[in-house]
Write a structure and sequence with these properties.
Blueprint lengths: L17 E5 L7 H7 L3 E2 L3 E8 L2 E5 L2 E5 L3 E5 L4 E3 L8 E7 L1 H5 L16 E3 L2 H17 L9 H21 L9 H15 L7 H7 L4 H12 L3 H19 L4 H7 L5 H12 L3 H4 L9
Antiparallel strand pairs: 1-8, 2-7, 3-6, 3-8, 4-5, 4-7, 6-9
Helix pairs in contact: 3-4, 5-7, 8-10, 9-10
Length: 290
């Protein structure tokens, strides 16, 4: 879906890249559910809210235990291992793509996870508001599927993301969540994600962000505790681990895919960063879910 600048288009609701699931409207077939329990790379933003009960999700090999009022979000390209169905669980799941996000009137910084915290614990009042909006979206996308204007769906999605953005930063940052440093750090993270396999230099990234290398170093250090170079390498090695685990590519092919001209250098860097060789990592692949 393409949205041209300067031109408003009235979209049909089923053109939106947005989907919601809940205990009232789960995935339809058992076969579909079984397929969705397999590890997969997310193509959209993913949000799950636990209204009642407990469950553990796994994202990028990290476990996230969730219980009443806990919310987990994940970004495109992260590896999600969904949990098996839990009894007596009340939940909402929401997926939406970049094109849908682009239709909203403002950006939501929490979605790029600048504070490296993918869970949000909602206070009682916020939890009730979020559950209400999830419930409305759930109704719109099922009961009123062909009767609700796209603008209304986007309005409720905007309301939901605004609530989550506020909750994300409330206990983790100053009230001025869109201060210059945070905005620049978010732009840095987006630049890393967008150009990861091109491996641009830190100088090039700093220049693109209209920053000196010293200023970029200070900002990235403030939010991650590490240097821009180390952050980039960590992100690159995380992507290497994802591809080793969830694809059938060889180590040599992977090195070229990630922008390395020398596969041997990639192997040395991987060993230095992860403590194990890439070839040692390959035999642990298991996509069977067993």
């Amino acid at each position: 879906m393409q949205v041209q600048k300067g031109k408003k288009e009235r979209l049909q609701q089923d053109e939106l890249g947005v989907m919601i699931r809940s205990n009232e409207h789960p995935y339809i077939s058992a076969d579909h559910q079984a397929k969705l329990l397999q590890p997969r790379r997310l193509a959209s933003y993913f949000i799950v809210l636990i209204e009642h009960g407990s469950i553990t999700y796994n994202i990028d090999s990290q476990n996230f235990p969730l219980t009443d009022g806990h919310l987990l979000f994940a970004m495109p390209n992260q590896i999600l291992i969904p949990p098996a169905k839990a009894d007596h669980l009340k939940y909402f799941k929401l997926l939406f793509d970049e094109n849908t996000l682009a239709l909203l009137p403002q950006p939501f910084p929490f979605l790029v996870n600048p504070l490296n915290a993918q869970t949000i614990v909602l206070e009682s009042a916020a939890k009730e508001r979020v559950i209400t909006v999830f419930g409305i979206l759930n109704q719109i996308l099922y009961a009123d599927k062909y009767e609700t204007d796209t603008e209304i769906i986007l309005a409720y999605l905007h309301s939901l993301l605004s609530e989550l953005n506020s909750a994300y930063f409330k206990n983790n940052a100053s009230p001025h969540i869109l201060n210059s440093n945070l905005s620049k750090f978010i732009a840095f993270k987006l630049a890393v994600e967008t150009h990861l396999t091109e491996q641009p230099s830190i100088n090039a990234i700093a220049e693109k962000l209209a920053l000196s290398t010293n200023s970029l170093y200070r900002i990235v250090k403030e939010y991650t505790g590490t240097s821009p170079k180390d952050y980039f390498i960590h992100r690159l090695m995380a992507e290497a681990q994802r591809r080793l685990r969830y694809s059938n590519t060889s180590v040599k092919e992977l090195a070229y895919e990630l922008g390395f001209n020398d596969p041997d250098y990639f192997s040395r860097l991987f060993k230095k960063s992860t403590g194990k060789s890439a070839s040692e990592f390959l035999p642990k692949q298991d996509l069977s879910g067993k």
